[in-house]
Design a protein that fits this description.
Blueprint lengths: L10 H7 L7 E4 L6 H9 L4 E5 L15 E4 L6 H7 L5 E7 L4 H5 L25 H7 L2 H12 L4 H14 L5 H8 L8 H17 L1 H15 E11 L2 H13 L19 E3 L9 H6 L7 E7 L1
Parallel strand pairs: 1-2, 1-4, 2-3, 4-5
Antiparallel strand pairs: 5-7, 6-7
């Protein structure tokens, strides 16, 4: 267990963005270390906060507060859980999509290439598919698509080919196994960036992050009350593009759809920030892990 479980990016800006009413109902879709949740609770009086997180490790961080409800589940189950609790509308939702410090720094979780550890990468350790399973079972073309789409690696076919060739000789079961196979493909001056993209791609695929994010955003739209705020912190271009498009148009393509008569449909959101907010120099100097963070805010019309 690390001393610091997680430090949220742009904590003041993101909580202010929620425009919290003391009696409102709010959702922290990614509880993690509980930093955002505690700040929300500080601003609530008779309101309520519901938090989601699929990683059971976060349960060590739960606050004891009668206004707080924690659900050890993926945020893709947002709507059903809220309705089970008798909640038909919420006043705001915040989601910090970054991997927690704890997940990166606990070697056995397999999220980081800094350690030689099992190729796991499951956010929910009850899940059946690990990164090692994905590498062992997937066809070469599927692996290539994963590295291209989720890691934006232009040499994705070569990477996939090397993995398939290597696994015929020996099962790739640790992060060290994977790094060793791909080492000659890593640019000498950009090894860290290369492996970060490889591991990001596998993590996204193992946890179905893109599909789950889309599900959560669509359900958030249905659950937000008029004037409710959607606040999302992204960390890579793929998820940021999805969030940006959804806030601009209510869909993931990023352009307004037309009704039966050909008239453009209005977006269900009012953008509070047209461009994403990024961390300041002081925050980045204190915590380099937030340097790629981008905060986006929208209000339901």
């Amino acid at each position: 267990m690390t001393t610091i479980y997680h430090i949220p990016a742009m904590p003041e800006q993101s909580i202010e963005a929620l425009n919290i009413r003391s009696g409102g109902i709010y959702v922290d879709a990614t509880f993690g270390g509980g930093g955002h949740s505690r700040e929300i609770l500080r601003r609530l009086d008779r309101g309520k906060l519901i938090a989601f997180d699929q990683d059971e490790d976060v349960m060590a961080n739960l606050p004891s507060d009668k206004r707080f409800i924690f659900l050890n589940q993926n945020f893709k189950f947002l709507r059903n859980n809220l309705r089970y609790l008798g909640i038909e509308a919420i006043d705001g939702l915040i989601a910090d999509l970054g991997v927690s410090f704890h997940q990166f720094d606990e070697a056995e979780r397999g999220f980081s290439f800094r350690f030689d550890a099992p190729l796991d990468m499951r956010m929910n350790r009850q899940g059946s598919l690990t990164a090692a399973d994905l590498i062992r079972k997937s066809e070469e073309a599927v692996l290539a698509d994963i590295f291209f789409e989720y890691g934006e690696l232009t040499n994705s076919r070569i990477i996939a080919g090397e993995i398939v060739k290597a696994r015929k000789q020996k099962a790739l079961i640790t992060t060290g196994d994977l790094v060793a196979v791909l080492d000659f493909l890593a640019p000498v001056r950009q090894k860290h960036k290369f492996y970060a993209k490889v591991f990001q791609a596998l993590r996204i695929a193992v946890n179905r992050e893109t599909e789950n994010l889309k599900e959560m955003l669509m359900q958030a739209l249905t659950m937000l009350d008029s004037g409710g705020r959607l606040v999302v912190i992204t960390y890579h271009s793929l998820e940021d593009r999805l969030v940006k498009n959804f806030m601009r148009s209510g869909n993931f393509e990023g352009y307004g759809k037309k009704d039966f008569y050909g008239n453009p449909e209005l977006s269900p959101f009012r953008l509070i920030t047209r461009k994403g907010i990024t961390p300041g120099k002081d925050e980045i100097a204190a915590n380099r892990r937030v340097r790629s963070a981008r905060l986006r805010i929208a209000e339901k019309i």
